[in-house]
Amino acid sequence: MFMIKRIKFLVFASLLLSLTVTSVMAEHVGDMSPACKLSALDGTAVHNLEELQGKVVYVDFWASWCPPCVKSFPFLTQLNHDLKDQGLQVIGVNLDEKVADAETFLERFPVDFAIALDAGKQCAKDFGVMAMPSSYLIDRKGVIRHVHQGFRPDEAKDLRAAIEYLLTEPL
Known about the structure:
Layout: H1 2-28, E1 37-39, E2 45-48, E3 56-62, H2 67-83, E4 88-94, H3 99-108, E5 114-117, H4 122-127, E6 134-138, E7 144-149, H5 156-168
Parallel strand pairs: 3-4, 4-5
Antiparallel strand pairs: 1-2, 3-6, 6-7
């Protein structure tokens, strides 16, 4: 009897958690992007997301300990290569505790898109990051249009289609 109650509780808790995550993610869609100020890995100022209005921005929060991040980086590099001239700005925002961990990761998995550091984790808090990686697709007006947690290669086609659609929208 105890085991059945425990299983029912675990199923209910899992469902509740998934609904909470979904609603948190959905509540950011349609909001203006937070006005984050990010720095380069060396600490110098590099990006203010408000300054990127007019571009479609793909903000990807990542960490060196994140296995799906390894899989997402080739996709992000390809996006940047293919679509930057059409107005796409890809920014990988690192959330590692130690900058050296991010630098080691980037030596092993080099990228061709902007890398920034959210040292105080305020930008991640403002976006409501709950998983690694978490990506936010922001339109040319600065509105969050899509939120995605995790990365699986079979999702890349749909993510790219969403980006290409936003690139065709007028400002």
